[in-house]
Amino acid sequence: xxxxxxxxxxxEKTNLSEExxxxxxxxIFEEFEICSSIDAAKGEYIHxxxxxxxxxxxxYQKFACIEHKPDIYIFNGxxxxxxxxxxxxxxxxxxxKNISDESYKHTFLDNAxxxxxxxxxxxxxxxxxxxxxxxxxxIVGLEKxxxxxxxxxxxxxxxxNPDAQYYYKDKKTIQKNIFEIFRIxxxxxxxxxxxxxFEPYKYAFFQYKYKQFALMxxxxxxxxxxxxxxxxxxxxxxxxxxxxxxxxxxxLQHIGMFKNILKLNPQEFYKNYYGxxxx
Length: 279
What we know:
Elements: E1 6-9, H1 18-25, E2 32-35, E3 45-48, E4 54-55, H2 59-64, E5 72-79, E6 124-127, H3 128-133, H4 143-154, E7 158-168, H5 180-194, H6 198-219, H7 222-240, H8 246-249, H9 255-263, H10 266-273
Parallel strand pairs: 1-2, 1-3, 5-7
Antiparallel strand pairs: 3-6, 4-7, 5-6
C-alpha cells in the first residue's frame, strides 16, 4: 500500500500553540508536510489545522492505513481542558449510519441531518484533487459553514471515524461580521437548489437558520445587536411563509426559540437565552 503525502495547511504568520506544534512533531506517520496554501501543497491530501488544537499522535497513521482513500475523511474531536472525565465530542456521530464499519464509504445521504453537524474543517482530511474540482472557496470566518456543505454535498466518498482524533479549545468570541451569516445562508440555499436537494432538506435548513441567527445575535458586538435582530426577524418571517407546513415546523428542535425571536424585543430575547444557546 502506497502511503499518501498529507499537506498540513497553516497560513503564514500563524503562531502554533506548543500543544499543537508538539502533536505534529510527534505524529507516528511522518509523511506529511507543512505549507501555507493548497497551491503550495505537494501532498495528495489536505488537512487544515487550528493552531490552538492538539492532534492525536495516531491521526495521520490511521488515515494512511485506509486502503481506498475517500474524498473526505471525517474524525471526531473533543474539547481541551474539560473538568469531567466524559468527553464532549465535536459532533454527534449517531447522525451517520454504519459508523461501526470504518471502511464504509458514505455519501451525505447517510447523514440523518447534516444541518445539525459541527461545521469546522479541522476534523476532516480532504483529497486535494477533490477540493480543486470545487473551484474557488474560502474557509475564513463564517465561510467555513458554506465550505462544509459545499464539500459534503459534492463528495463521492466519505469515511467517518467516530473516535476523537483532535482536541480543541472552545472559544466564544465577539463576532464582528455577523451580518455575513445572511449571505452565507443565501449561498447555501443556492447550493441546495443547484444539487436539486432543497425540498428534502428545507425543514432542516430552516431550523439551521434560526439556530445560527440566534447564536450570531448572542455573540454580536453590542452596537450591532439591535440592527441584526431586526434583520433576523424579517428574514425568519419571510422564510416561515415560504411553503412550510406548520404541522412539521411545530416539531422542529427549538421551535419555541424561533417563535420568541418573532415575539420578543432584542433585550428580552438576550435576557431569556443568555448562556443557553450552544451549538
